[in-house]
Each structure stands twice: as C-alpha cells, then as structure tokens.
Amino acid sequence: MSLVSKFATVGGATLISRIFGFGREMLMASALGVGPVADAFNLAFRFPNLFRRLFAEGAFNAAFIPLFARALEEDGEEGAKRFASEIFSTLFSVLVVLTALAMIFMPALVTTIIAPGLAVCVDDPAAGGNAISCAMRFEITVTFSRIMFPYLACMSLMAMVCGILNAYRRFFAAAAAPTLLNFILIGVISYALWIEADKATIGFLMSWGVLVAGIAQLAMVTLAMRMAGFSVALKRPRWTKGLKRLLVLAGPAALIGGITQINLFVGQAIASFKPGAVSILQYADRPYQLPLGMVGVAIGVVLLPELARSLKAGRLAEAQHTQNRSLEFALFLTVPAAVALFIIPEPIIRVIYERGAFDPSATPAVAAVLGIYALGLPAFVMMKVFSPGYFAREDTKSPMIVTLVSAGINIVLSLVLFPILAEQGIAWATTLSGWLNAVLLFLGLWRKGLWEIDGKLVKRSLLVLVSALLMGGALIAMMWELNAWLQPGDAVTTQIAAIAILVAVAMAIYFALTLLTGAADRTMVMRLVKRKRG
Question: What is the DSSP string of 150-169?
Fold first, then answer.
C-alpha cells in the first residue's frame, strides 16, 4: 500500500468521523445554543477529550510504536505480547487510581484547572430569575466532569490498543472508532429534543452518552486487535526496563503531539471568565477540525511507522523522500482549506449552527474565531509532519523544549489578548503559537541534518500557495455574485446551495490550477485515475 493510500485510509475514516461530528455540533448548538449549560458541558468534556486527542491521535503511538516494533523484531510475537501486557497492566492500574482521585477532588479540579473563571463568578442582578446562577453553573460543571472523567481512562487504554493495530499496519479500526462518539451523542441529543428536555437535562444525558461512547470505542478496537491475532493480559504491574523507557518517551511525546489541544484547553480555561466565550471557541473549533483531522491525524498516524522502518533499515534516502512527500501532501490539502475558511467563515457558521437555541447574534462572533483559527491550520498540520522526524529517532527532548516554549507563549498571549479581544484573543494566541511551534520544529530538524529539502517540495509548495490565493480571489468574486443567497433571512436550502456552489467552483479552480502549474504530481494523479478505471 502506497503512502498516499495509507493517508487516504486513515484520513477517510477520520473524515467520516468529523462529518458526523458536524452533525453532533449542529444538534448541540440547536439544543443548548451559546450559554452556561453549553459552557459547562464543553468545559467538562474538554479535559477528558484533551487526553483523547493527546493519546488516540498519535502521541502515545509516538512512544509506544518504536518500542513495540523493536520488541517484535528482537523477541518475536511472544516478546511483544509480554511487553504490551506489562504496559497495559501498569496503565490500567494508574488510570483506576487517577480516576478515583479525580472523582473525589473534582470541585477543586474545576476551580483550579478546568474552569477557574467559575471561582470568581458573580451573579448579575439585572439578569433576572431565569438566568442560571454562578453556583448552579459550578454544580453542573462538576457533575458533568465526574460523569465524563472515566472517558479519559477508556481513551488512554484505547490509545495503546490502537498503537498495536498501527504497528501491524491495521489503521482503519483505530481511525473509525471515534465515529461511535458522534453516533451515540447524536442519538442522545435527538432523544432529548424529542422529549423536550430542558437544557440542564440535555447536558446531563450528553455526559452519560460520552461515557457510554468511551466504553464502546475501547471495545471496538480491542475486538479489532483480537481479530488481528494479538491480545494482551492483565497482570500485576511491575517496573521493567521497557516500561521505564516508555515513560521516558511517552511524557514528552504526549506533550508534543497534543500541543494544539493543550493550547485549546488553556484557552478555554481562560475563556471561562466570560460567559459564552467557551461555547464560541468550541463551535468555531469544529469546522477547522475537519481538514485538520482528515490530513493531520492521517499523516501523524501513518508517517511515524513508515519513518521508523526506513531508519531502522538504514534507508536514509527513502526516509527523506517520505518526509518531503508528506509535507507536500499536507500543504496541498490544507493551504486551500485555510484560505477558504478564512474568506467564508460566516456563511459556513450560519448554515451549520443558526437554528433552535443558537441565536443569530452569536454567528459573527463564532465566524470571527473560525477565521483566525483558519490562519493557523497549515501550521497545526505541519506539526504532525515534523514531529515524527524526532520520534522515529527516539528523540523527544528537542521537540519537548520547542513545545514548552510555544505553550508558554500561548499562555502569555492568551492572558494579554483576552481582556482586549475576548475569545478572538484566545484564537490569535492559539494560531500564533502554532506557527511558532511548527517553525521551531522544522528548524531543529534542518539544522541537525535530519531534513533535506528537495527541489520538488520547494517548487510545488510555492505553486500550491499561488494556486490557493488565486482560488481565494475567485471565491471573493463569487461571494459578491451570490450575496443575495447568503443573507441571514434566506432559506437554509438556499444558503446551502450557495455554499455548495462556492465550494465546488473553488475546488475545481484550485485543482485545475495545481494540475496546470505542476503543483500536483501529474504522474501520480494519472496513475490513480488509471487504477480507478481498472
């Protein structure tokens, strides 16, 4: 299977998950809107979801796969099973203790880490009796957090199982499992709307839905692992050489691989000081997660095993080729997506969310944040391309330093910009720190001679940028022509038709330009077309 085919397998499964994620967010926006219950659910879900993004989307793999592959090569399948069982047993024990402690001390976690803004919340007398009080906001945030926290344990265990599957080049089950979360939450919200539940009850039911989804996802990948002919045993935890090496690698790898999510988590914690800001950031996060998940996650999952195999076999030229083509592939898809999301965020947000409890007045605020996030999209994906260059060589120290620097800059910028620009300040901090992270990661590889840029990458990257900008110009011109179809009072079907036309024509222009200029590999495209026909 070629590199592009592997990207397509993982990216396709992730794309399906993100599309259903859109459906989930649309229903949630309709049911909860921008308000205290939506804030409470998003704050409570962000903490365990942070670990899902940290571990399940490549960071745990960055530490586990090289060690598992070495055990498989040196000690055979039985040795790999012993190593995997040691890690699974220790991870399971630690997670049980961590979950128990979190459930007990959740009020303190909420006031210090998850939502510090609630600790200084003051009720507004002018809001009237219908407004949810600060005490109630705190109570439901704690309740939701307690229900959903075990999801963290499920996702951490699932990450290890996915690492085993990826080491065996079984990518689909691990990429498809997150779809279960979207299916279950769509069902829960639909049921809650059908019985006309109040917002607090909807949030409560959604929290239980998250926990059920975590258990279902873990069961799905475990079944896939057994079907692949591999299993792990739960034993008494023991301190072993393999476990020690994993811990040395896993901590920095999780920090590095999840920096985007860490930045978002920090941003939401700071945003908790303004009612509604957390929901605005969350609703804006979903649309740009579609290209980020489809491209970034696919590259992060596939590239590391490919690089590790090439380096262990001494095929250095192959490793360099893989790195350059991966970056080329990432830019080819993310640059036009970033341009489009920056130009037409408001029509997109209006069509996705503006119904039910989601007030039209919230659309410009969410759209503005989405436009800012879009500017950082290429950087967020490039981090997924650059990080495996370190991980495949078992170097976690260098990228960890880069990550700590960019995370520190993100916190400082968030604290400085939030009082001035509110949630837009958080978005700017996330985007700017993302670009800093990507640039520093690349410079580290380049200076150490671990990344040699070839002429094809430079030429095609510049042509991709030019093609995307020309597409953006055409998109602006088309928006003027279709402006009458994109007004807030227009029917949803009319707005959807207008956006569909914009996207279809923009894609046609971009792909035509990239083929004509050579920004896309014509030989590879023709080979893929011939294969499809065959």
Answer: HHHHHHHHHHHHHHHHHHTT
